[in-house]
Amino acid sequence: MTRFKIRKKLWKVATVTVLSLATFSAAESAQAASLTSTSPTAKGVLPTEITPVGGIVLDLIGQNNSRVTSQLGSNKLFKGRFNNGKPADYEGNPGTIGIQSGFTSTIIDALGGGIKELAVRFTLFDGDTGVGNFDHNDNTLLVNNINFGNWGSVITQNTDALGNEAAAGVSGGGFRSNTLDTGWFHVTDKSNLDNFYTSLVNTQEVVYQLDDVDPNDNYYDFKQGIKSSIIKVTQAPVVEPSNSVPEPLTIFGTLTAGAFGVALRRKQKQQQKATTNT
Question: Rounded to whole angstroms, how far apart are CA atoms 186 and 58?
């Protein structure tokens, strides 16, 4: 076999290998609910460090288009009625769901002096704010004491414990009764964004709370449904600079070249060994 034919054959092997890996990755990703892993902000798909469900995810887009994301692990969140639950310090109305710290001045400065838009993701079992549930349109999300919206208006996705789509599908609004739902609050109102940014500068933390029109009538479980492999994940605030994601063709080209190089070196070593043995 000529050297040209050998190289041509190796190129086909390397290309098939890369395409197989890409196909496997796409199939694996398709199992996860896209609603839970894609933020409604302009940045879209979440960083890979963020789990597909569980905890509280905050996605901030700065005035300079930088992105700051954080995840507060579900093991740090509230469970129970807000007059009888854990942690006990979180009881009351509004009741506290969780508190995310770690927003240092360096991270806040990375936002370029303000926030263009933000999104917050919650995973909640038995929220009872779905259409027809007794708390529909009764509950409000407060973040640093700023009204971020109605829990009954959030479109949610039912998943299993690892984020794969489950039988109840997508809600018409709200976190449903006896269902593990995950959904996003999306904030674009300039006044709310400015007030939240100021609170972030002053406190360097984010306090998530639920305000109920008729409190203590529901049992909330912000820990439910998350398996132990991801229940303790807490992603501290991380800055993603603008234009940090390579183009798809660049990624494919790098993988293809790398796979071809490995295959070529393996073939050359095999030829050298055969020559030595003759």
Answer: 10
Query: What does the block give as tokens for 226?
Result: 């998350």
In whole angstroms, give the CA distance from residue 204 to residue 210. Answer: 20
Cβ atoms of 271 and 100 within 8 Å: the answer is no
List, run by run, the mean pLDDT of 10-residue segments along the chain (278 residues).
Answer: 53 41 37 83 93 94 95 94 97 97 94 97 96 94 98 96 91 95 98 98 98 95 69 70 54 43 52 52
What is the pLDDT, as a whole number, of residue 19?
A: 36
**φ, ψ dihedrals at 198, nearest 5°:** -60, -40
Token pair belonging to 72: 């507060």
- Would you state the structure tokens that stand for residue 37, as one six-digit string? 């892993």
What token pair was written down for 110?
Answer: 């990375």
Between CA 61 and CA 41 the distance in angstroms is 8
